[in-house]
Amino acid sequence: MSTTSWFVMAVVLTTPIGCSSNPNVRVRRLENGRLQVDGPLAGPFKTTEELALAGCELMTGQGGASSGPLGSEYCALNYYAPGEDAFYLSYLSDFKERQDSREAKTCSMPQVLNDPARRNALITGGDHTHPHNARFSPGDLSGKWSPTRLVAEGTGRVFHRELFVFNRRGSAPCTVYSFNYATRVVSALRSGQWIQIGQVYDDNGNIRMLEGMGWDLQ
d(Cα 55, Cα 89) in Å, to the nearest integer? Predict the structure, then answer.
């Protein structure tokens, strides 16, 4: 997954949509080079736990998303609507900045949100699927997102921006992990709750697992 600095506020712009036979893929490249994605595909959700679980089910169900080394990645945005006190999942991006290999899969994270009904939405996170590996890659964990925190107008509620990775192996349940850009903590979604499992300790994406924790512990 490619990373960059992302916009905070929802933006409404109109340009031709990217070509895809998948109706859940609604992404376009704007004249300034940024990727814009429509929303919402799913929601509202009251918590990020609910959003992540539903997002994993939906995104790993896309064509190729759970096909192992021959699969492909999808990206999406999570965002918060202050007036509704609710989270939403955007439509998907299947754009790539480079060609996939058997070992490495990528998707380009959208940077701009088009949700005309929620013009003041805050982009609080990003999602991507891993077709071949449940864990974050070092590239995921070395990424930057500035600013790492944002505040909802009116309520003063503070959000930490996060990156989610989704994986499904056959008929097994979805695996969901979160990387908090502000605290550099990695968490796993287990039994509907975020459980901290590790701490990223350098800019190369190296992680120190907490005692008794691991990637595949369920």
Answer: 7
Residues 94-132 pLDDT 10s: 987 766 555 566 789 999 999 999 999 999 999 999 988
Exposed e or buried b for every residue in 82-109, given b needs 16+ CB within 10 A?
Answer: eeeebbbbbbbbbbbeeebeeeebbbbb
Nearest to 79 by CA among 125, 34, 26: 125
Hey, what are 88's tokens?
A: 């939403």
3-state SS record for 15-65:
CCCCCCCCCCECEEECCCCCEEEECCCEEEECCHHHHHHHHHHHHCCCCCC
Q: Residue 200's Cα: distance from chain center in Å?
A: 18
Return the residue matching tokens 């500035």. 146
Count the alpha carbons within 13 Å of 167 in the hemisphere toward its beta carbon.
19
